[in-house]
Amino acid sequence: MSELFKTVQQSQVSLSVLMLPSHSNFGGKIHGGYLLSLLDQVAFASASKHSGHYCVTASVDVVNFLRPIEVGELVTLKASVNFVGNSSMVIGIRVEAEDIRTGDVKHCNSSYFTMVAKDDAGKKVSVPGLLLRTKDEVRRFLAAAAAIRDREQDKLDKRKLDPASEASKRELANHRVQVALAGA
Questions:
Q1: 44, 54 in Cβ contact below 8 A?
Q2: Quick one: residue 79, left, alpha or beta (phi over 0 = left, psi -120 to 50 = alpha)?
Q3: Cα separation of 124 and 34, whole Å?
Q4: Secondary structure in 3-state letters for 16-71
Q5: Are 43 and 57 within 8 A, CB to CB?
Q6: Residue 158: per-residue pLDDT
Q7: Which phi and psi (to 5°) does residue 159 adopt?
Q8: What is the pTM of this model?
Q9: Quick one: DSSP state of residue 134?
């Protein structure tokens, strides 16, 4: 780690790709899996720029497909570090598609990837802190911190679930499910 803190701007990455027929699904829209691959690439690049190390994808926290992307549109993925932990970083990614004939731009996807920095031996390494310079950067950092806390709390809550409790039975009754527990 060469710097104690880095700015969000130092991690920014932008990737533009023309959408081709080979990227489309059976419905004629760009395949979500292809977009996920691009999202992972740009998250890797942003995290690696910030950390100065090889990074791996620890989790895909949120992927919101907001609008379909058409063949022939120019897709731009914009990524930057929103949050840093010890060795992990949350990368925020915005995807826009431009109709290159009209210039119309639409917001198609927002995603958040957690990436972890590794050394040459594959061990986690510390990453620089994040120097926040705008209210938006502070808002994004706090939102990511809250999402991490919520996920941790959710994990604890799920461990406490009792399938035989009355609350669980009421919840199950609201869904199209049959429960046939062995030995019950």
A1: no
A2: beta
A3: 28
A4: EEECCHHHECCCCEECHHHHHHHHHHHHHHHHHHHHCCEEEEEEEEEEEECCCCEC
A5: yes
A6: 79
A7: -65, -25
A8: 0.86
A9: S
Q: 110 — phi, psi (to 5°)?
A: -125, 135
Q: How many whole angstroms from its chain centre is CA 100? A: 27
Give the span between the Cα atoms of 39 and 117, in whole angstroms: 17
User: pLDDT for 128-182, tens place per residue?
Assistant: 999 999 999 999 999 999 999 998 888 877 777 788 788 888 888 888 888 887 7
- How does strand 105-118 pair with strand 129-131? unpaired
Neighbouring-strand partners of residue 6:
130
Return the SS3 of 173: helix
Cα angle at 139 between 64 and 149, to 5 degrees?
70
Give first-to-last CA distance, the chain, whole Å.
55
| Residue 97 vs residues 60, 71, 88, 104, 144: alpha-carbon distances, Å | 21, 10, 29, 8, 25
What's the CATH class of domain 5-132?
Answer: alpha beta
